[in-house]
C-alpha cells in the first residue's frame, strides 16, 4: 500500500547505499539513485532511465517519491509568479518568483500554515497543519528555477525563506533542504545567496550560529518597543527583545555576518518618533541594515500602510546614524503574492 511506503528522500545517501547492499546489490547503486532524486529531481522511479527494470521495481515496492506538483501558477503584471504547490497529502503551500533586472529570487514556504500569530499576516489565519519536508522545500526551489529559465532565460539567483511559516520552527528540515540546495549533489547554489528570515526565535538564532551556517539572516522586527511588538506579534511575549538582542549579538560574534531587519511602518502603530528612536537604538547593537517594506493590506486586517512622510522620517533618522536602509516596494500585489499576503486564496 502506498501509505505504508517510506518517502525515499528521507534517506541519506549512506542509508540508500545500505539499502542496496542489504538487498544484494552494489553500494554505488545508492549513489546513482541519490543523484536521480536530488540533482536530477526525478518525479518517479520510471524516470530513472539508466536504472534496470528490476531495480526500479524494487524501489517501487519499497518507497514513494513525495514530489510536489505546481497546481496553479499566476503571473503578475510586474512579472512576479506565484505557485500554488500541491503536496502529496493534498495540502497546498505557496511560493513566489520575484524577478528584477539583475536577479531572480525565490520566496519559499517552510510550513503549511504557520505556528505563529503575526496579526498583520494572512498566513497567520491558517492553522499550522504540518512542517514541510526537506524534499518539499527543495522542490519549490527547483520549480521556480525552471520557471526562471523559462520566462526570464536565466537561472534562479537568490532564495529567501519568507513564504508561509516560520523557518526556525522547522529547523532540521530547513537545514537539510539548504544543505541539498547548496550541495553539488543538489543545486550547487552559494549559501551567500540564501536568506533565512525569522520573526525572532532567539534560541534558534543561537543554534544557527553554533551550527556555523553560511547563509544570511533576516529578522522581522517591525518594532523595537516591547509593548508594540507584543501587540502586533503576540507570540513575541515569549521571545522578549532583550533575548533577541542577546541572540543577535551572539550570531554576529560567531558568524561576522550582518543582520537584515525587515520592518513595515504602519499608520498609528509604529509611525511615531518614539518608534523611530527605538529602532535606531536597536540597530546600534549589532551591525545591520534595514529593509523598510511596503505593506499590503490583507482583506480583513486593521493594519494600514503609514504615510510617505513617516517612511521618509525613518530613512532620515537611520541614515543620520549611518545605518544602511532600503525601501522595498511590493511585488505581485495583484495576485496576492506580496509580503504577508500568502494565504492559499486560490
Ligand atoms: S509573518 Fe511569518 S511568522 Fe508571522 S504569521 Fe506570517 S508566516 Fe508566520
UniProtKB/TrEMBL annotation:
Cofactor note text: Binds 1 [4Fe-4S] cluster. The cluster is coordinated with 3 cysteines and an exchangeable S-adenosyl-L-methionine.
Cofactor(s) this protein requires: [4Fe-4S] cluster
InterPro entries, A to Z: Aldolase_TIM (IPR013785), Methyltransferase_A (IPR040072), RlmN_N (IPR048641), RNA_MTrfase_RlmN (IPR027492), rRNA_lsu_MTrfase_RlmN/Cfr (IPR004383), rSAM (IPR007197), rSAM_sf (IPR058240)
Keyword annotations from UniProtKB, A to Z: 4Fe-4S, Cytoplasm, Disulfide bond, Iron, Iron-sulfur, Metal-binding, Methyltransferase, rRNA processing, S-adenosyl-L-methionine, Transferase, tRNA processing
Enzyme class, broadest EC rank: transferase
Subcellular location: Cytoplasm
EC number: 2.1.1.192
Gene Ontology CC: one annotated term: cytoplasm
Catalytic machinery residues: 94 (proton acceptor), 339 (s-methylcysteine intermediate)
HAMAP family noted in UniProt: RNA_methyltr_RlmN (MF_01849)
Family: Belongs to the radical SAM superfamily. RlmN family.
Task of the protein: Specifically methylates position 2 of adenine 2503 in 23S rRNA and position 2 of adenine 37 in tRNAs.
Protein name: Probable dual-specificity RNA methyltransferase RlmN
